[in-house]
Amino acid sequence: MKILGIDFGTKNVGISISDDEGRVAFLRVTQKRDEHIVSYIVDMREKEGVETVVLGMPQNIPERWKEDIEEFKKELEQKGLKVVFQDESFSSHEAHHSAHQFGIKTVTDSSAAAIILQRYLDRESNKA
């Protein structure tokens, strides 16, 4: 089953998804962070066969931001989703750096979501 990766921002939510085997993360979409974002993710779970949601949680952030991310996690769990945290430190910086290496000028939040998800997938494959 597939795994969904999320970069939860103040204005936008970057979303990525794994392949069926849960080995490789792919960029999917950047959505506006609004009252419809939870239902959008629930719909993706049903359409894509998502088993787990990996939610980026940066280290050393202000408490109010941490609480905001934890509240979002709770909302997803109330809709029946399994949600795990993954350290997202420097994921946006890494996405920008990678894009510039390939001459890409626009980096989306879904790029950071793919990095967060790939970190999780790599960590899980190393456990096996």
The residue-averaged pLDDT reads 86
At the fold tier of CATH, the topology name is: Nucleotidyltransferase, domain 5
Within CATH, the superfamily carries the name YqgF/RNase H-like domain
**Count of helix runs:** 4
Report what the structure shows.
The relative contact order is 0.24. It is globular and about 35 Å long. Residues 99-106 have low confidence and may be disordered. The protein has 4 helices and 5 strands. α2 links the parallel β4 (50-57) and β5 (82-87). It has helices at 37-48, 63-78, 91-101, 109-127; strands at residues 2-8, 12-18, 25-32, 50-57, 82-87. Strands 3-2-1-4-5 form a 5-stranded mixed sheet, sandwiched between helices. It is α/β, with parallel strands linked by helices and 128 residues long. It has a single domain (2-127), classed as Nucleotidyltransferase, domain 5. α3 crosses α4. The longest helix is centred in the C-terminal third of the chain and has 19 residues, at 109-127.
